[in-house]
Automatic annotation (TrEMBL):
It comes from Mariniflexile litorale. Signal peptide: none annotated. The lineage of its organism: Bacteria, Pseudomonadati, Bacteroidota, Flavobacteriia, Flavobacteriales. Gene3D superfamilies: Jelly Rolls (2.60.120.10). InterPro entries: cNMP-bd_dom, cNMP-bd_dom_sf, RmlC-like_jellyroll. This is Crp/Fnr family transcriptional regulator. Residues 13-116 form the Cyclic nucleotide-binding domain.
Length: 194
């Protein structure tokens, strides 16, 4: 099985789409290889693309006027990402997306995708299923933020990304958990003692 076949299988895990539609999707997509530290969506940029991450890690974050960063999400292969609210509202993005390691992804023209969704019921179904899966993940994250303490959120992150400590700097993990790097260090020490 080649790489394109595995990506097609991934898409078909949401909803079956034909080879013809895959070909149409590829026409509005560009396969990109990006180095670590590359911003793919910048602050206040009016976006027009969404992404399917094939390899690497991408973070979504918010930056305050003082320069403090808050990580909203980490994306691992295979996943979809992009500033959806900004795309839907045709407004600048409040969130930035940046590669944390060398990454490969398909960059898809969102507005051309919407036109294709109008044309093909199966593609529209795929889009709906992807949105549903993204919503489920966001709801899970919200529940974690509301109901779990920092140690429990860290343990949950370790379940989602088993080698998270080796993959990301401590300050990114701490920001995602809503704590300081010092607090994260204390949590790690307590876990190591147990």
């Amino acid at each position: 099985m080649n790489q394109t076949d595995s990506h097609t299988n991934f898409l078909n895990s949401f909803s079956n789409i034909s080879e013809d539609i895959i070909e149409e999707l590829l026409k509005i997509s560009e396969f990109k290889t990006l180095k670590a530290g590359k911003q793919i969506v910048k602050l206040n940029e009016a976006p027009s693309k969404i992404y399917m991450l094939v390899s690497g890690i991408v973070r979504c974050y918010l930056s305050t006027e003082s320069g403090k960063e808050f990580n909203k999400n980490f994306y691992m292969p295979l996943s979809f990402l992009g500033p959806l609210t900004a795309l839907i509202q045709k407004k600048p993005s409040l969130f930035m997306f940046e590669t944390l390691e060398d990454s490969e992804m398909y960059e898809v023209d969102y507005y051309k995708l919407m036109k294709l969704c109008e044309k093909h019921k199966s593609l529209n179904m795929l889009y709906s299923k992807v949105l549903e899966s993204i919503y489920v993940l966001y709801e899970k994250r919200l529940v974690e933020l509301i109901s779990l303490d920092a140690k429990q959120r860290y343990t949950e992150l370790q379940k989602q990304i088993p080698n998270v400590d080796a993959l990301m700097p401590q300050y990114h993990i701490a920001s995602y958990l809503g704590i300081t790097a010092v607090q994260l260090s204390r949590i790690r020490k307590k876990i190591d003692k147990n």
